[in-house]
Every structure is written in C-alpha cells, then in structure tokens.
Amino acid sequence: MLKIYTEKTFLIPDHRRYVFPMLLDLHYKKSNTISESYCITDRIKEANIIILPLEYNYIRNLESGIKSRYLVLAREYNIPLWIYTGGDFGYSFNAKEIYNFRVGGFHSKLHANTFIMPSFIVDPYEYTLKTQFYPIEKKNKPTLGFVGHAQLSVIKAIKEFLVYLKVNILNRFLKKQHLDYQPFYPSSIKRATILKKLKRSGSLKPNFVFRDKYRGGARTKAENIKSTFEFFENIEQSGYTFCLRGVGNFSVRLYETLAMGRIPVFIDTDCRLPLDWKINWSKHMVYVNSSNASEIEQSIVDFHNKLSPSDFKDLQSKNRVLWQTYMNRNAFFKEIHDVFKP
Fold this sequence. Notes:
Layout: E1 2-5, H1 21-28, H2 32-35, E2 38-40, E3 49-51, H3 56-62, H4 66-77, E4 81-84, E5 98-102, E6 114-116, H5 124-129, E7 143-149, H6 154-173, H7 187-199, E8 205-211, H8 221-237, E9 240-243, H9 252-259, E10 263-267, E11 286-288, H10 293-306, H11 309-326, H12 329-340
Parallel strand pairs: 1-2, 1-3, 3-4, 4-5, 5-6, 7-8, 7-9, 9-10, 10-11
Helix pairs in contact: 7-10, 9-11
C-alpha cells in the first residue's frame, strides 16, 4: 500500500471539482478498490508519495508558492511529488521529483515522468441510452460515425484564432496560468475538411452529423439530454467512430467510443495514450498517423477487410472490456500504484 501525504484542509466541497482525481475516490467516495492500494497519512515521514491536492493552476491562485513548498518537502524526504495539470493545454515541469498527471499534450515533448490519464466518463449505456451493450454485425462497407462540432467558415476560423490568442497571450504569456505552448489548431475546421472528403467515399458508409456549435448549441437540460443521446446513439449505430483531437491534443471521443464497445478511428497528432506500457493500443483501433483523408479511408478499409465477422464482433466486446477494466479512475490509479509500489 502506498501512503499519501497531502493537505486535507484543501479537500473541501468548494474545491471538489479541482481535486487530484485519485483523491476523489480516496477522500470523498471512500472507494474500496483505491483504499486497498492507497491511504492518506498525516505524517510525511511515513509517506511514499506527496500529492498536490488540487489542480495546479487552480491551487496556485489560492497559494502562489505551494508548488515550491511541496517540492521542498519531496526533496527533503526523497519521495515523488504528484501534480495534476488540468484543462486542454496542461503544463510540463522540469524537476525530476515531479510526476505530472494530465489528459493531453505532445508525446515527443512530454517528459518520461508524465502520465496521460483517460477522460473519466460515466457509462453511456447506463446513464444515457438506458440499454445494454451488444456488438453489431459486420457489413461489407465499414460504417464511420461522427456527431460533433465540424464547420467550414472564415468566421469560425477567426473565432477559433481569437480563442487561441486569448489562451496564449492573456493566460500563458502574461502568466495568469502556467500552460504549455501549442500551435494554432482549428479543430472544428480540420474535422469538417477531412469528414466532408470522407463523406464522398465510395468505400465507406458515412454516418455524420455536423454541428456548428458545441453540443449543437444546447442550452437547456432537455436539449443537453437530447444532444447527448444523439451523440451516443450515433456511436452505437456505427462500427467505427472518427476521433480527432479538439482544442487540446487529445480525444475524449476515443474513450467514449471504447465505452460504447465500438472501434475508434484515431488520428494520431503526436499523442501519448494512457497506460501505453500495459495496453497495445494498435490492437483496439484504426490507428492513423496522417490527416490525409484518402490515407484515413484506406486505413479503415484495410483494417475492416482483415477482420472476419466474428473478429469484428469480438473486437467490439474487447474494446468495451478495455474501457471497463482500465479507463475508470479506480482501475487507472491501481495501475499507477503498481508502478510506484516499493
């Protein structure tokens, strides 16, 4: 069991949404799975790990020097310091004592001490569709699904660039937040450009719903429920789902597709995936390292043609099991425990 030292005075309801993810299950929900692997100690001399209790940029606003204070303790007691950097961009640390937990970033630029977390989502079958998982049959043509923000327009490009400037100038360069640099990436335009070409494909059966706003502009609870249902229904009806990064260099849709027990078409934009020392990701998805539509199309067709009807159904079941086994907080941090256990 790993003993964790952190300041529980920060673990109050007002800060709950910013808590280091594993502490949600250790301190708030009292998960038996996590409690078998971790416990919190008030004595740092007994600790194996020290954890900054809240998301890095959020806690900096509460106490500007807290990271330095924790780093001093980590060095004094020769124990690792875990820090959670949230948001689309994340932040990298140079100190060898720091282990960084984040959801995205560029693999070629991330330190070895960086752990990519999955996007922790609830089970869409249980909470949205209210039904049970079942694998769909293989068809001659692969069905490629997508519901989401994808729009080709000059106005949209300008809006995305203004948001980019806000993050990189107002937040990053003025040091309102500590963020890694990312080049401009108009994600909705990139998606629209690729998908409109794939829609004309004779080798695929496209099942696309383009939205010009996030969640289709839903504002009310009923509209949110409807848009979420349509999103997961599309994944359920499609053997494959198109997964390209958003503002940050990661894809939440990847994990949503796995949760639905379908096959992601993952466009690699120099991503690092969770538990890559444990999971052979190429066996669970169409893995494409190009944004060229014709190469994406050929990769899907080749992947689909290599699968027998039983293989196709079996892979869907395996992807659902992969999500259930590794892509929730309890399971993920159990694997992290095994990395750090004495």
